[in-house]
Amino acid sequence: MENPDTFRADVAKWLEENCPPSMRKPMGSEEEANWGGRRKQYANPEEKLWLDRMAARGWTCPTWPKEYGGGGLTAAQARVLADELRKIRARPPLISFGITMLGPVLLEYGNEEQKREHLPKIVRGEIRWCQGYSEPGAGSDLAGLQTRAEDKGDHYLVNGQKIWTSYANYADWIFCLVRTDPNAAKHDGISFLLFDMESPGVSVSPIKLISGSSPFCQTFFQDVKVPKKNLVGVKNGGWTIAKKLLQHEREMIGGMGFGLAASGGGATMEQLAKEYCGDDSGRIADPVIRSEVVQHLMDQRVFATTVRRSVEEAKAGQGPGAASSMFKLYGTEMNKRRYELLVKILGSQALGWEGSGFSPRELATTREWLRSKGNSIEGGTSEVQLNIIAKRVLGLPD
Questions:
Q1: Dihedral of CA 160/163/166/168: which sign?
Q2: Are 235 and 184 in contact (CB under 8 A)?
Q3: 285-300 pLDDT, tens digit each
Q4: Known catalytic residues?
Q5: Does pTM surpass 0.85?
């Protein structure tokens, strides 16, 4: 294994030479994140350059095997890379459900053809994925889904509806739970399919939220033909894959507790507090706000330490497991508290919806505060997570 100090020095040198200047500024809002995909338009050429350079080294997915486009790094090396990226305040080159959710389960359950077909495209940000899980009558009771896939010989014929499909209107492909045996017990007749969103019979209708944005969609399938080679795992065995993917999803959503974007315009929470509440010789002037900011930063640090411990357990073959529900619960609740505090810091400047009396970051903060209300619902509600923690972590009886 390469000397850790040498590896860190090499990483730092490469980042210094290859991370473009405009990518060394935290995102002002989640809207600035690069999700990639076939339809992605790059207003800033450096955003594409940054993605291409990181993807060429496999560092968009640093621990994935090199044969599938990943970086082949150990967990320890990946932490060094993350540390050095933080030091230069580098933006994530790519954010993707393919990286955080689909890729890990394809590595575990996909066949060789599926891995070689899909994983390198995820690494390079060429395909944007969405998740076909929730249905109008099957949200918290996910296994009650009714979207059907009938066996038609060389393909499946998919009919049904999904809802709360995040970014379906931008996605290129979908990973989708379908019922392939309506007569089996509800957990036993489900399969896991992959298909192109441009397939005939797929349509999408965005749902407008109180934040003014439409990140969620209704997705409809009418006689959609899906080749059988796109079945992941075995027919009627999709529930096992679905549960594992949910664990990865909950870890991803729990990461919101760290704050994906900066607090606005690249400023930190402390900087905003000093700007809006006063600067007393380098300290936040308002003692109440100062105390609340410090408490929030302490909570973030403790949460990060716990997540780090889980990563070490995962490396030992024990994760992600039910602990992902703890991260989802705590991370999303902390993200909601984060935006409550930011709105408090901005005071009356957080009351704007539009207009010249408010800066872009003030308007963005208000809308993201509204958006954060959905954090404890999406990906399994906080109540669902508490049930999982009670049964699978604490071992409490039903």
A1: positive
A2: no
A3: 999 999 999 999 999 8
A4: 249
A5: no
